[in-house]
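Translate sequence into structure tokens.
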Amino acid sequence: MSRLGMTPAEKSWILYDVANSAFVMQISTTIPLFFAQLVENAGMSSAKATALWGGVTAAAVLILAVLSPILGALADYRGMKKKLFSLFLAIGLCGAVLLALVSQWALFMAMFVIARVGYSACNVFYDSMLTDVTEDHRMDLISSHGYAWGYAGSCIPFMVGIGVLFLGGFSLSSFRLSFLITAAWWLLLSFPLLLRVRQRYGLEDRRDKISHAFVRLGQTFRKIRGNKGLLFFILGYFCYIDGVYTIISMATTYGNEVGIDSVQMILALLLTQFVAFPCAIASGVLAGRVGSLKMIRIFILLYMGICIFGYQLDQVWEFWVLAVAVGICQGGIQALSRSYFGQIIPKEESNEYFGFFDIFGKFADFFGPLILSLCAALLGSSTYGILALILLFGAGYLLLALSQRAGAGKNSQPPAC
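Result follows.
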């Protein structure tokens, strides 16, 4: 281990979070703004842009929601995880590059779906690699460091891209150059994981692994259904992560709709990244003392307050306050959800279980933007959709309480000294 107490595999795994977080940053900032310009140049309103962007986001995550458990089941066979990860990494990178090469808004939507599907599929395998690179008692710490360094590291290509946008007067060509910078960053920082991380757990390879994967999916579903603690946790995760992902993916389109200046939005969301860095690491430390589930429930309560504040948002300073509040919660709730799930599942079937974990997350990411899109399309404003997210966070909180009561929470406690 290094002086910081991390193995080369752990550090390489963390570094990939730095790699792909740059693209995540674009998804929530410059990509929607570029799309809004394309749509508005075609003569459509900002509310229409919000509705279209929510729809294309929902379509991308729905595709992955269907594919995730199948891909996860296939990746559990020895030697398959890295191959599938590399395939979808190539797909995601190709889509990210093509975003910079198209000018028609409908074609841009199609390229975004390709890039988003590639990125999200990679995360199914990447999340499950947590069980390969570290041990149960270190998962909260390593997962939190992944999100933390992802937030901090993603600021580097993002700030370079913002510099390009300012120099280019936020022209379409300057947006395109910033997309290419992010794609290059994603590619280069993916190499350490490809070279150093190995699949420690897995099922023996077999010729009929594709058909057998579908058989295993049914078996795993029955196992999850029979484990009440695990089932309640996944259902609760679906509810609260729905709100988290919606706030991340729709922040700039929502801010644009309520009249926040684009430059102010981008700078405020950059502040979110800086705030999230220490807060994500702190959440991993606190989880080691009070337990993962307790920390996740605290973050859920904070998010409910964020929704109430966001509902009445109409001033620039309020958007900045919201950015700080989201930064405090965002990394911690995602990191602890991932690490806690990794602790309570069978390691040799981690990809398959993370496939189910991801399908709930992706359906959540589909449902939340859809709520905002419907509110924007039917009511002329998506603010009511933000308020409705409180119900999802509340349901998630109650389901986590049921999960702990059913027994799953015992694994979230800090290990005995």
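Note: The chain is about 80% helix and 0% strand.
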